[in-house]
Automatic annotation (TrEMBL):
Keywords: Disulfide bond, Membrane, Oxidoreductase, Redox-active center, Signal, Transmembrane, Transmembrane helix. GO terms for molecular function: oxidoreductase activity. This is Thioredoxin-like fold domain-containing protein. It holds the Pfam family Thioredoxin_4. Residues 73-225 form the Thioredoxin-like fold domain. InterPro entries: Thioredoxin-like_fold, Thioredoxin-like_sf. It comes from the Bacteria. The keyword Repeat does not apply. It comes from Ornithinimicrobium tianjinense. The chain crosses the membrane at residues 20-39. Belongs to the thioredoxin family. DsbA subfamily.
Length: 242
């Protein structure tokens, strides 16, 4: 399946190396056993309940209390090469992880890959595929956090396959599962789904990362900027979108 073209970027805030619409990406750690593990490839509509693992639908990866749970339903649009996504993860990632562990929210990650076009590499696509490989191993959220924690200082440098495998090891993948993960990183079996996630983001009208929806409502630019700077703003942002 050919990869979709990169969507235009409409910057709200400017960073040191590229401009992307202000917003938030949230990164989380592994769920404790008492929660429902809902690491599904979601085929539902934006902001609606649903479930499923139909890869062509490009519905992202859902983790937390479940897509049908009566909790805030959050959808995050992100690109692993986006430095602002890394900034927001460092700001609110831990706070949201606590809420996920407590069963208070559900988060669907819509992993985009449009920065490959502007940065002239394929690291967004390969990292997204590797994240799905980690999902296969039950380590999506930990791997997701490891990738953002290891963003290169120079935007566009990207990651080698060896580095991505190392992030999987950091995420707790070991033994036979690590060998399977390494092969998955090399073979990119989820490449079609990665392209579908970008297509889904385009269809949803998302033109930059990070972008965040709560219960189907896009958080405002002001809310996004507050989340970038103050992790304690998370409760207020969630409450503003019941």
């Amino acid at each position: 399946m050919p990869r979709p073209p990169a969507p235009p970027v409409k910057p709200v805030t400017r960073g040191p190396s590229h401009a992307l619409i202000g917003g938030v990406v949230v990164l989380v750690v592994a769920l404790i056993a008492v929660l429902v593990w809902a690491a599904t490839r979601d085929a539902g509509e934006l902001g609606a309940s649903g479930s499923g693992a139909a890869l062509p639908d490009g519905g992202g990866v859902s983790v937390g209390a479940g897509l049908e749970a009566d909790v805030p339903q959050i959808r995050i649009y992100e690109d692993f090469q986006c430095p602002w996504c890394g900034v927001l993860e460092r700001s609110v990632g831990e706070a949201l992880a606590d809420k996920i562990e407590a069963g208070e929210v559900n988060v669907t990650f819509q992993i985009m890959s449009f920065l490959d076009g502007s940065l002239r590499n394929d690291s967004s696509t390969r990292a997204a595929n590797a994240a799905l490989c980690a999902d296969d191993a039950g380590a999506f959220v930990a791997f997701h956090g490891a990738v953002f924690a290891n963003q290169p200082q120079q935007e566009g440098t990207g990651w080698t396959d060896e580095q991505l495998v190392g992030f999987g090891r950091d995420a707790g993948i070991s033994g036979e599962a690590l060998g399977t993960f390494e092969q998955c990183v090399a073979d990119q079996p989820h490449a079609d789904y990665v392209a579908d996630m970008q297509t889904r983001a385009n269809q949803d009208g998302v033109t930059g990362t990070p972008t965040m929806f709560v219960n189907g409502e896009k958080i405002t630019d002001e809310e996004m900027n507050r989340l970038m700077q103050d992790p304690s703003a998370l409760d207020g942002v969630l409450a503003a979108h019941p």
